[in-house]
Predict the 3D structure of the following.
Amino acid sequence: LIIPKTHAPKLTDVPDVELEAILPVAKKIAGAVGCADYNVLQNNGRLAHQVVDHVHFHVIPKPDEKQGLGIGWPAQETDMERIKKVFEEVKAKM
């Protein structure tokens, strides 16, 4: 578990300078755990399965099909034109 020093309910509330340190720590934890396969998970909001109202990141080893994080969202057809449109909309807001 990786927890930023700033108490913030969502990722967008954490200062960028603190976020810059998160992935290097996740990388070190993943290496120390020794699993070739793993997930880095961070949830924002109840609908996204956030239970604790403080941003935190999980490094979850995935040693085999049954252990670790299971992801079961339904696959959808890729609509590249829609993806390009959404990309341009998001990019314009950044």
Observations:
- The chain has a mean pLDDT of 94.
- Helices lie at 16-19, 22-33, 80-93.
- The radius of gyration is 16 Å.
- DSSP finds three helices and two strands in the chain.
